[in-house]
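Anyone? Bumping this.
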Amino acid sequence: MSMSGIPPAGDFSALAATTPAPDVAPPAGKIVSDRKQARRENWALIRRRPGFIIGSFISLVWIVCALGGSHITPDDPINDIFPTHLKPRVGHFFGTDKIGRDILSRVMAGARDVLIIAPLAAVIGVTLGTIVGLVMGYKRGLIDSILSRIVEAVLSLPVLLIALLALTTLGRSNTVVIVVVALLFTPVVARTVRAAVLAERDLDYVTSAKLRGESSSFIMFREILPNITGPIIVELTVRIGYAVFTVATLAFLGVGPKPPSPDWGLQISDEYTLVAAHIWWPTLFPALAIASLVIAVNLIADAVQSVLSA
Amino acid sequence: MSRYLLRRLALALITLWILATIVFVIVNVLPGNVGRAVQGPFASDQTVHDFNHKIGADRPLISQYITSMRHLVTLNFGKSYASDGSVTTLLRKALFRSGKLAFLALIITVPLGIIAGRFAAKRKDKFADRFIVMTGLATSSIPEFVTAAILQWIFCIELTWGHVLANPPDGTSVIGQLRYLLTPASAMVIVYFGYIARMTRAGVINALDADYSRTATMKGLSGRTVMRRHIMRNALGPTISVVGVQIGYLFGGIVGVEKIFNYHGLGLAMLDAIGAHDIPVLQAAVLSVGIVYMVATLLADLLIAYLNPRVLIEAKS
């Protein structure tokens, strides 16, 4: 899974339909416990998948690095200076960079920015997308047609290119990166949620809620939303993967964190031209760090997806 | 067929118009002073004011909007802030170079992805299948610039098979250019291969289960004929739409690859434009990719309709 916004394959409507509306309404307490049990069973299935275990382990290592920051790195990632461009050796397992900073320390500390920005952008994007998708799928009509065209238009461009344009006009800062990436994820999430809502909106439980005289917002958020959590959770895990991908690329292209931040993309951007002089370590280690994190997140997303949309 | 084509074309044009409007909003309506950004923090207010007047940033929004739509229709995107040259001339060469790189990546990725996907589908849930699916998932989740940096190090520096900088001198033969372009193209192949393989795999698995392939086998057609005439023809639909969509997305990933290999394509032109705050170039580059995407998806839809005429009937109803 990658690319600035290629939608995940698969149609989630079948999944949404697995919670059929019962002909005779059982007592409210029973539905809740069924749902809880289904959730517990799904979680048990996800937990057992090897992809999930490996992915979680790698992610956990990076989360520890991000939380620990300079407290757990061997040297200070910004202020400790050694001879420049030392090859990897005992004491500096990843070598030193062009200013003489320890690369292992910088790679460890570099997890922080991306692990704050990417999940936050994904969560905001999925929340907005869910709201928009619920409205589109439930209300239909003109508002759905107009929003569908806009969604279509935004999806016709790589997220990365619009993000570059927006960050250039708005100026670069972590907040702007979060907002821009979140807004660019909104349409694709909205499309997935809309499809799930379409499969639900004509089921009996929605009709009976309407007959009870419930408001649209009650039906959308209290009736339909709990029944489409599957595709939304899948979407969230997939989006976190894309967000890491996008944030790392934006940093490499020079519109992310500013020096002396130990951000991985920025480190590569600073030193990649030196690879031609056989100084490969300042580029290779942050590159492997990015690769390991995106693969880990995607392994988790894949496990979640194969259980929840089976 | 022609009605289907007209409908698809009209939809594509509407999408392009909305896209251009979104880009206009990002550039002109969001807060920010173009003159100040281009001239820098030390320019006098008068210089900034004059610059804004020269480029028309002080005109009412509606008149700026009309100008920008006229630019889109005529494909003449005005003048660059940085060089005073025509944006269209500047971008035409860059787009051609990026197109060359993207095309090379595509003609490697598509057959490779289809073959791998078909291979995996025939061995569903066996080791080879798992291996292809997991490899595809892993490689397609790594950003292009990371793959490009690692490939450059291995193939261009340690093994010296390719060139570190991907710009072939003028007049290099097609074969000679391959040595420059193959490594950057491989970075994109590695990233996009996974999707195509996965889509083909899903399509073939579906088609293998379908009644028509059983009928074809039972009426005595050879396995190869069933595969070619019945299964692949049906299974390739989703794959072709993914390829169509990816041609547009290739231009997103290409930015990072071009930076690593210092290849003077659209991506590098965009990065230069970002450095110089050259909004017209950036805006035109984004819209050109939008146009490329529209054309590619349109062609993909036509190809699908040609392979599987059922689509036309479904579109009518």
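Late reply, but here is one note on the structure posted above: Chain B has a mean pLDDT of 81.
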